[in-house]
Amino acid sequence: MIHFINSFDEIQEHPNSRVVLIDHSLQSERAVIDRIEKALDAPYEKDNWDGFWDAITDLSWLDCSSVVLVNKSLPKLRGWDMKVYLEQLYDASVEWESRVGNKAFCVYFLLDDKAKVDFFLPGKFAQPEVKHKRSPATHIGDLFEITLPGDRKRYMQFVIVDSSQLGAWGVRVFKKEYAIEEKPSNEDIVKDSVDFYCNTRAIGQGVLYGLWTYYGKSADLGNLNAMVFRTFDREIPGLNPQRWRVWKASQEAQYYQVLPRKYLHSDYGGMCSPIHLMDRIVLGRWFPVANVYDDYKGASMVRRLLGKERIPEHLAPKMRPNATKKSINK
């Protein structure tokens, strides 16, 4: 079970327990795993998060009735490692809670750290009053460095405010990976080919919580007409319940019942959280399960030839006033 406390005096009594203390002195995946394995006398050693998961979900070698993991402060982990650490603690606590009559697995965080925990585990907890720090300002042209597992890194750039998607901030993520010690120039970064485009509203939150860091600025924003997005609506009253919306950034959207093949490789246009964006960068997919964005194979040739993929003009929703009049097909 996960607990948020104001001070360590609020920690409940756990008789016959094994206690693990975590703090900001742990600055790497290896350091966190070592602390867990030593505190729990784990009978095996693994140098990755799989070993961490095995250690906190097995515990068969311990004769105690509970394990109490106290985050005196959050460890100083890179963005992706922090995400994995917190996700595994949460998943393990849920799994142990379902094991009736078995050991208890309790995790404590200070309430001061709740905003950060919520950021990495969105929607998992109720929302008591917490103090949120102000995110740093970001501007069009800003470049950000993203640290990846395996001491690699990539870059992204804030390039447009997309009026066709609720004023979202459009970013482009570059393909090339660099060694962690490399220091590429801004010019070299923006010359790279683009892996994908994405809409978000929280670039500054990603900086605040360490998913990426500000690197520099470039006036070269690339080809904004290459930013083509798609979303899939499942419930549209009066229409076929399956519908695609396709648009170029800040341009008029088009609507289709079957996605035309020329848009098969357009990008997911939903409003992405920083965590969702980080997942796409590291995993290469928008969603871990089969879905219409990563796995959609396109319209059948028969339906395309008959023209049945296009929603009738008079049935398509009207364009918002702040969108431009340029057509995506031009």
Describe this structure in words.
By secondary structure, the chain is α/β, with parallel strands linked by helices. Helices cover 22% and strands 25% of the residues. The strands form three sheets. Strands 5, 6, 7, 8, 9, 10 and 15 form a seven-stranded mixed sheet that branches. Strands 1-4-3-2 form a four-stranded parallel sheet, with helices on one face. Helix 1 runs parallel beside helix 2 and helix 2 packs parallel to helix 3. The model is unreliable at 314-330 (pLDDT under 50).
List keywords for this structure.
four-stranded parallel beta sheet, globular, seven-stranded mixed beta sheet, disordered C terminus, 330 residues, 25% strand, alpha/beta, single chain, 15 strands, 22% helix
Helix-strand sequence: EEHHEHEHEEEEHEHEEEEEEHH
β-strand number: 15
Low-confidence stretches: 314-330
Q: How helical, in percent, are the residues?
A: 10-25%
Query: What coarse outline follows from CA principal-axis ratios?
Result: globular
Please report the number of helical segments. 8
The helix/strand class is: alpha/beta
Terminal Cα separation, in Å?
55 Å
**What is the rounded Rg?**
23 Å
Biggest sheet layout: 7 strands, mixed
Average predicted confidence as pLDDT: 86
* Amount of beta strand: 15-25%
By oligomeric state, this entry counts as: single chain
Offer a quick outline of the entry.
This protein is α/β, with parallel strands linked by helices and 330 residues long.
